[in-house]
Amino acid sequence: MVMRMIVILFTPIILALFILAWAALWSFVSGYIYTAGTATDLAFTREYAGGALSDVEKNITMVYYKDHDYIIWVWLYHLFGLYWGTEFFLACHEMAIAGAFCQFYWTRDKRKVSFPVLRGIWWVFRYHLGTVAFGSCIIAIIQLIRTILAYIQNKTKDSQSELVKYLLMCLQCCLWCFEKVMKFINRNAYIYTAFKGSNFCTSCKKVFGLLMSNLVRVGVINCVGSFILFIGKFLVVMITGILGYFMLSKDEQIEYWAIPVLIASIFAFAVAHTFFSVYEIGIDTIFVCFAEDETKNDGTAGREYYMSKNLMQWVDNSSEALKNLKRKKGQQRAQAKAAKAGKSGEVDAKQTEQMYPSLEMDEK
Q1: 67 contacts 109 by C-beta, under 8 angstroms
Q2: Neighbours of 43 (CB within 10 A)
Q3: pLDDT tens-place string over residues 31-76
Q4: DSSP symbol at 67
């Protein structure tokens, strides 16, 4: 599916450019905030050695900016903007990719799908900006709370009792887990919104029910998918490190080749993680669509599955649908043989009615 919309592999580059531009803008504004305040003169006298006769004293006046009392709130607001903007771009990326995969899944004739990535991006900015903004705002609030807590920990680390340190560490751990859970729910809510068009809260409720009803499958897919993606990232890093070693170790002008190889490996991991995130979102999208398809359809006439034949084999209740599919194909082969033999036998239209159009097309 990814190879049929190869453009989707370039979306992480666009995402990285947006995030870099946002970080540059944030740094530029930070300079203004850092120098904001009341200009105050600071006068003092400094002595300079004047040679053998006498020392020289000079009066020096320096200007420094005294921070306003409310500057801490400005920094908190500015930091929240950094978190919110970054999570907003990440959420837009996730929903755009989810929209592209959903178009392929919920279309029986895959040849009719045109420009799925561009359509996914258009749908995000045309219909779902509110959903993306609300979901990313929740994550940004959690991250801001974690930052404030880390600041308090750092400022009071010398005056804390062991019990307070333990409680703050437990609270930080709970917030970290809560952030991970919310990111997982948000991603699946974006996927549900991508093909249902519902708002954020409704999507969270619906997708939570889908995930809870397929709890075992969620665990298996997450474990297997994460392991496969980790193997892919590990191979990329290993290949980069090995190539870097053979290229730099033979160069006599380079004495310390380990540092460049380490930097190249870290960069390779960052690039691999960015591009493999497309496959990660695709796996989650297909699974949510699969769960919804299984809930709404049963493979009978009028309620045909949208999933492919290979994916259909993983559905617990699809055995009957597969039997009907085989029976229909047997009838079609018998009808073709009868036509070649010059016979005029007819097959009941209801029995030969196509139960799953996309499967027949794929095999052709």
Answers
A1: no
A2: 8
A3: 888 877 777 777 777 766 655 445 566 777 777 777 777 888 999 9
A4: P
152/361 Cα distance (integer angstroms): 62
Q: Is 46 helix (H, G, I), strand (E, B) or coil?
A: strand
Mark the ranges of the chain whose per-residue pLDDT is less than 50: 52-53, 317-319, 344-364
Torsion of CA 106, 112, 117, 121, to 10 degrees: -70
The label of the residue with tokens 């010059």 reads 342
56: tokens are 């020289």
Helix, strand or coil, per DSSP, at residue 159: coil
pTM of the model: 0.76
CB proximity list for 363: less than 8 A, separation 6 or greater: none
Helix orientation angle between 258-296 and 215-248, rounded to the nearest 10 degrees: 160
The per-residue pLDDT for 344 is 45
Tokens of 223: 């474990």
Q: Where are the strands (E) in the chain, listed by range?
A: 38-48, 56-66
Q: What would the two tokens of residue 101 be?
A: 């995969």
One DSSP character per residue, 144-157 reads: HHHHHHHHHHHHTT
Tokens of 27: 């740094």
Phi, psi for 74 (deg, rounded to 5): -65, -40
Output the pLDDT for position 323: 58
- For residue 199, give both structure tokens: 């708002």
Q: What are phi and psi of 6, to 5 degrees?
A: -60, -20
- d(CA 172, CA 151) in angstroms, rounded, equals 11
Place of tokens 């591009």: 275
Question: Minimal CA–CA distance to 132: which of 203, 210, 79?
Answer: 203
Token output for 150: 């880390």
Structure tokens of 52? 């053998």
Cβ neighbour number for residue 283 with a 10 Å cutoff: 18
Token couple for 75: 């920094």
Q: How far is CA 46 from CA 53, 191, 230, in A?
A: 18, 67, 61
Measured CA to CA, the distance from residue 347 to residue 337 in angstroms comes to: 12
Q: List own/partner pairs for 253-256 with CB under 8 A and 24 or more apart.
A: none
313-346 residues labelled b (16+ CB within 10 A) or e (exposed): eebeebeebbebbeebeeeeeeeeeeeeeeeeee
Q: What are φ and ψ of residue 258, in 5° steps?
A: -65, -40
